[in-house]
Amino acid sequence: MSRAIGIDLGTTNSVVAVIDKDGAPRILTTEEGSTMTPSLVWFAPDGPRVGEAARAGLDQHPDLTLFAVKRLLGRRFDHPEIRKLARILPYELIESPNGDTWINLSAGRTVTPEEVCGMVLRDLRRLAERHFGEPVTRAVITIPAWYDAAQRQATKDAATIAGLTVLRLLSEPTAAALGHGAHRGANRRYLVCDLGGGTFDCAVVDVENGLFEVLATTGDPFLGGDDVDRVVVEHLIRDARATRGLDVTSDAIAVERLRLAAQKAKHELSSQPLAKLTVEELAQLPSGKAVEYTRPVRRDELELWSSPIIKRLDPPVAEALAKSGRRREDIDEVLLVGGMTRMPAVRRQIAASTGKDPSTIVNPEEVVAVGAALEVARLEGVIEGVLLVDVASHGIALSTNGGDCELVIAQSAVVPTRAYRVLMTRADDQARIEFDVWEGESTEPARNRHLGRYAAVELPAALAGDVLVLLEVTIDTDGAVRLSASELVSGERLTLEQIFHAGLTRAEVTKLARTYAEAP
To answer: What is the predicted pLDDT for the residue at 258?
Structure first.
């Protein structure tokens, strides 16, 4: 059996971890000596570059250098937040034929988020293969706990494109608690808050005698360090106009240089009260002379600018506690995960929300990948006495004939889980029954996420109402939704035809996987 690895696929940076011969987890370092691989892909003239090699593209060709693509995985183009991102990202987002979000490169070439994330995963896989000196084809990949079925499937498709079989999609809060060593300590009730570059994840996790039980998960899919960077850039653009008379609003390269400088200053302000922000060549005068832009940025300025964003941490925390039936006083320990939790204002906000000072994790950017590697060890029997129990992040509902949605599986149901519904024919000799699958718990279809339209076909000829179709709906341990159907009376298996689907088709995924398997 080939080697398996643990991967934290991040919005800004990604991390890969393995289990050493002595059973201890190890974070692998890149050729540059870093434990983190930037989740960047630059479609350079001589071919795609990934990770650190793609950084040059941010300055030279921001329209061809893709970052924060994880935010696009499994997302429809008509989502309000995608529309907002389309206005501010330096690269172009477009709508795919089935309504998904794709990326338009120059010369009319389009790429999918699955393909881009697959390239990052492929780079991490090769990093592990250099470490082991042998092929790596299996992985545990962490995901936000609130990911819906489309986002989970998109992550799996990205892994397939990268040449990886997913052993398990592991929720980031569970991975963080596992990486923190919760399975080795006393029984405790945790609130895990994961704030990274693009997403905020919050979960209530109980650990008792090696049993990890996720009681509730919430989050904000569009809240992270990228949003703080964007707010800082907006202030810097106004400052450059007021103090230097420079309007760089429509200059994608200048805006990207400001974003990188803002990100660097933000990191420095996590440990010091003042940072000097410098962009050596922000713009060019008509004479051709480059204009340098520099200004000091105080921590209190950064906190003032980002306060509306930081306050958005409160609702998911309160919702997670409410869904779990826990009060703030019931939580034994608050764990902060993700690079943005180094920001003092974030720590203060979560402390105020929970009434408890969060624990300090030495490696908040790495602990999730460590948990993924430990899950590999658990699945392979290296670690015993640990059991992970997760819950469905969203409810699943069905509708027929354009009617209201009927809830089939409730949110927070323990997974894997299975439920059944009976559909019947409404006309004589009806050969098919069409139905829609939705993610959400509202009776109104418009308030739910449409996962797909299906039809049970080749039904036997009979009078209206005499043919009953037993539909089986399953959510597996990865949160993926699976369907099967049979004729209720005879028990004969029926064919399900997919009329509409979100995401890539199996044929598209297979084609991309073959393409990248043959690439150098």
So the answer is: 95
Amino acid at 272: Q
Query: Same structural domain for residues 292 and 321?
Result: no
- Asked if the model's pLDDT at residue 383 lies above 90, the reply is no
CATH number at 501 reads: 2.60.34.10
Whole-number Å distance between alpha carbons of 1 and 62? 41
Strand ranges (E), 342-492 = 387-391, 396-399, 406-409, 414-415, 417-424, 433-439, 449-457, 468-475, 481-487
Which pLDDT does position 520 carry in this prediction? 75
pLDDT digits (tens, 9 = 90+) for 494-510: 999 988 877 898 899 99
Query: Structure pTM?
Result: 0.91
Burial (CB count <10 Å: 0-12, 13-18, 19+), residue 424 = middle
Residue 517 within a domain = no
Q: What contacts 392, CB < 8 A, 6 or more positions away?
A: 409, 410, 411, 412, 413, 414, 415, 417, 475, 479
How many CB atoms are located within 10 Å of the residue 244 CB?
15
Q: Is residue 270 part of a domain?
A: yes
Pure H helices in 291-429: 299-310, 314-324, 344-354, 367-379
Reported as a single tens digit per residue, the pLDDT across 13-34 is 999 999 988 778 999 999 999 9
Within a domain: 518? no
* Structural domain containing residue 106: 3-223+312-391
Reported as type and span, the H/E element at residue 495 is strand 493-501
77 and 201 together in one domain: yes
277 bridge partner residues: 295
Closest by Cα among 500, 473, 449 to 150: 449
Does 165 share its domain with 125? yes
